[in-house]
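[Discussion] Sanity-checking designs against the backbone

I'm trying to build intuition for which residues belong where. Below is a structure token string of 499 positions. I'd appreciate it if someone posts a full sequence so I can compare it with mine line by line.
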């Protein structure tokens, strides 16, 4: 039987191709970064052609590492940065504009305009989402309204819309020569254009946003055979799994039971809790989203707390302030001091996401004195991720009525022991890191593997999950609450900063 599964993990800052064996262990991996484009304050773009080049390069490299051939792969899954919006020409593949990244805030005025009638939660009942700059629908609308001729072409059926998953699947399966134009339910649920109950594009929302349905991809499940790759190193391999990155991590962490949750520490920070077959509407600032849909089985839903800036803050310390040379250096710098020195860092670079949803918040460093040094700044930056996670956990417990007893973690920042210990301290629960930490790519591989019979069922996947390390809380309650109260005070200083 074919030995391995492949996964394309297209993230906010880089693209990876990973091959896994049946136990979920990595066989080969290649990774390449792509440029972050900032045309104006609050605007964030990517060059989709560069992302496609990087995707081809990492596939080539990872396949060469172990001299792998297409016949060695049972299937390939795709996982991707969500909400990032692309529009391209159906017949040429030409991009009409750069990809507008999920962090981009250019549609803030549109959010305010659409919120005038019915408020920020105007579409929450249908979509599970508040009106925010985060989601794809208003980004598509911006492209159609601001790129000359785009709306007319879209009306004629000459343009295609997709998030990164759709773009890569289209390219991989042939592009202009018969490429499949699809997305899965998890990515579709992040556009603010899909009805959560019917799992189909909502005609009323399309009319309100002014988006022609003919440019939208077909919505499929997260685990089925969509087509075959035409790219040489993987020619003929079935593309059989698609999951947005955070949902992929939920699957990779095998959180298949209602109440099970994971937190991914990447560019942003994303906490998802499995809610089962019923979509739970949030009253405390969370998102209701599709967790996954495996083949013909019913969709599973999740509550999600999305934090825009986590690892991106460490990159900011590296690239904008230059106080560290490599991202990994932040832990040693933070350990050079005993505490945060009274400093609190609210990284509202693109507003605040869950549970606040304040697009006009901006980044704040509070509590500065002459005593403060770069060690305190590094420590405050790490603590910001943990504090933001606690805000989300509290909201999630209120919405779900479930008290989290442990938190499963994954993502690039889980290698940071200082952050993970502080996370456990500030939540006052154990924080668990699994043996296999590449859970996002693994989730996409699992979805593809289930679709082609490489795995029999979810029990096969659960058997692969194992604990690498558990952090136990050891901060006194009085100190924990003092730190958290100061954080919340700092958050109030960031609100309503932008006009």
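Best answer:
Here's mine. Compare freely.
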């Amino acid at each position: 039987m074919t030995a391995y599964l492949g996964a394309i993990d297209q993230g906010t800052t880089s693209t990876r191709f990973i091959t896994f064996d049946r136990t979920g262990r990595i066989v080969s991996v290649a990774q390449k970064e792509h440029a972050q484009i900032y045309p104006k304050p609050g605007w964030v773009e990517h060059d989709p052609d560069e992302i496609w080049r990087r995707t081809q390069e990492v596939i080539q490299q990872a396949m060469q590492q172990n001299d792998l051939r297409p016949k060695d792969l049972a299937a390939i899954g795709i996982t991707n940065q969500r909400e990032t919006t692309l529009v391209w020409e159906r017949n040429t593949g030409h991009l009409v504009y750069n990809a507008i990244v999920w962090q981009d805030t250019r549609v803030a005025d549109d959010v305010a305009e659409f919120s005038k009638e019915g408020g920020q939660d105007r579409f929450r009942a249908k979509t599970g989402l508040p009106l925010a700059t985060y989601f794809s629908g208003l980004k598509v609308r911006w492209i159609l309204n601001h790129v000359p001729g785009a709306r007319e072409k879209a009306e004629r059926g000459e343009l295609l819309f997709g998030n990164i998953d759709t773009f890569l699947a289209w390219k991989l399966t042939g592009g202009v020569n018969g490429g499949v134009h699809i997305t899965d339910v998890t990515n579709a649920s992040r556009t603010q254009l899909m009805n959560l109950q019917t799992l189909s594009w909502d005609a009323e929302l399309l009319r309100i946003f002014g988006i022609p349905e003919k440019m939208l991809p077909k919505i499929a499940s997260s685990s089925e055979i969509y087509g075959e790759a035409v790219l040489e190193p993987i020619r003929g391999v079935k593309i059989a799994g698609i999951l947005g990155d955070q949902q992929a991590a939920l699957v990779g962490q095998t959180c298949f039971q209602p109440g099970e949750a994971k937190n991914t520490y990447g560019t942003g920070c994303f906490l998802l809790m499995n809610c089962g077959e019923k979509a739970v509407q949030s009253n405390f600032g969370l998102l209701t989203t599709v967790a996954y849909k495996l083949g013909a089985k019913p969709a599973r839903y999740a509550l999600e707390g999305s934090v825009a800036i986590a690892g991106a803050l460490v990159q900011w310390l590296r690239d904008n302030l230059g106080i560290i040379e490599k991202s990994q250096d932040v832990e040693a710098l933070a350990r050079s001091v005993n505490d945060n020195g009274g400093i609190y860092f609210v990284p509202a670079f693109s507003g605040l996401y869950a549970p606040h949803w304040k697009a006009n918040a901006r980044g704040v460093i509070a509590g500065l004195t002459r005593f403060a040094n770069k060690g305190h700044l590094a420590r405050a930056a790490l603590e910001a991720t943990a504090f933001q996670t606690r805000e989300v956990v509290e909201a999630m417990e209120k919405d779900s009525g479930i008290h989290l007893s442990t938190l499963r973690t994954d993502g690039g920042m889980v290698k940071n022991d200082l952050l993970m210990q502080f996370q456990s301290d500030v939540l006052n629960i154990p924080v668990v890191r699994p043996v296999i930490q590449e859970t996002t790519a693994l989730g996409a591989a699992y979805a593809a593997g289930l679709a082609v019979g490489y795995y029999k069922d979810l029990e096969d996947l659960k058997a692969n999950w194992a604990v690498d390390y558990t952090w136990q809380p050891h901060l006194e309650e009085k100190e924990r609450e003092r730190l958290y109260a100061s954080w919340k005070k700092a958050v109030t200083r960031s609100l309503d900063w932008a006009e």
